[in-house]
Amino acid sequence: MKNPILIGFMGAGKTTVGTTLAKVLGQPFYDLDDAIEKHLGQSIPSYFNEKGESAFRQVEKELLARHLSTDNVLATGGGTACQVVNQALLRADKRPVVWLQASDKTTLENLSAEDWQKRPILADKTAEDLSKLKASREVFYRKTADIIVNVDQKTPETIAEEIIDRLQNA
Ligand SMILES: Nc1ncnc2c1ncn2[C@@H]1O[C@H](COP(=O)(O)OP(=O)(O)OP(=O)(O)O)[C@@H](O)[C@H]1O
Ligand SMILES: O=C(O)C1=C[C@@H](O)[C@@H](O)[C@H](O)C1
Ligand SMILES: [Mg+2]
């Protein structure tokens, strides 16, 4: 089984589930947002503030491209799979792409006030705005994913096991 790439909306649990999944599989884990922050030497919100979203997307694309040839369990950022150029990179990688699909309710429950602050796309947004943005992005996740795993009311361990089961039986 090739190590999967996790995509999906903010708060779906890509970082959390990816960490657990990598442990269960005994494989290294790579989190694209963490890698971006290390590369920039600053937090994503601070970089967004200084340079704006399009500069962020450029760095995101470069680090994604640089990393795809390695075989880690990979957690993308919430917007990674929504950029056309990244979709092509993800599809070309030949690793299974797993969409962690969460309801609005789960997404809102997962995102604490601190999580909300760490995600500049959500700055000044209401729950209703989040719901609209999430709905508008689903078409991209669906198009990029090989499998869809619903995460509602499941622990990270259960989700990781489900991903492994689905990939082994795919
Ligand atoms: N299955 C789960 N059960 C309980 N809490 C969860 C679960 N998945 C994620 N969380 C919590 O939700 C929050 C957001 O999770 P996480 O950072 O993994 O999301 P993400 O998909 O990586 O978001 P982003 O796209 O912004 O990187 C964290 O506080 C995490 O602890
Ligand atoms: O959904 C998004 O567009 C983002 C999600 C985060 O993971 C980060 O990649 C960044 O805050 C942008
Ligand atoms: Mg994450």
Automatic annotation (TrEMBL):
Amino-acid positions noted as binding Mg(2+) in the UniProt annotation, renumbered to this chain: T15
Record keyword Signal present: no
InterPro entries membership: P-loop_NTPase, Shikimate/glucono_kinase, Shikimate_kinase/TSH1
Any Pfam family the entry gives: SKI
Cofactor comment text: Binds 1 Mg(2+) ion per subunit.
Residues that, per the record, bind ATP: G11, A12, G13, K14, T15, T16, R119
Major location category of this protein: cytoplasm
Superkingdom field: Bacteria
EC numbers on record: 2.7.1.71
Catalytic activity: shikimate + ATP = 3-phosphoshikimate + ADP + H(+)
Co-factor requirement: Mg(2+)
Residues binding substrate: D33, R57, G78, R137
Pathway: Metabolic intermediate biosynthesis; chorismate biosynthesis; chorismate from D-erythrose 4-phosphate and phosphoenolpyruvate: step 5/7
Gene Ontology terms, MF aspect: kinase activity
Location of this chain's protein in the cell: Cytoplasm
UniProt entry keywords in alphabetical sequence: Amino-acid biosynthesis, Aromatic amino acid biosynthesis, ATP-binding, Cytoplasm, Kinase, Magnesium, Metal-binding, Nucleotide-binding, Transferase
Family per record: Belongs to the shikimate kinase family.
Quaternary structure (record): Monomer.
HAMAP family for this protein: Shikimate_kinase
Purpose: Catalyzes the specific phosphorylation of the 3-hydroxyl group of shikimic acid using ATP as a cosubstrate.
UniProt name for this protein: Shikimate kinase
The species this protein was found in: Fructobacillus parabroussonetiae
Gene encoding the protein: aroK
